[in-house]
Amino acid sequence: MFVPAIWLFAIYVSQSIAAGLGLLFILGRALYSRGYVAEPSQRTLGFMITFAAQVILTLGALIGAFIRWFA
Question: What letter does residue 13 receive in the DSSP assignment?
Answer without folding.
Answer: T
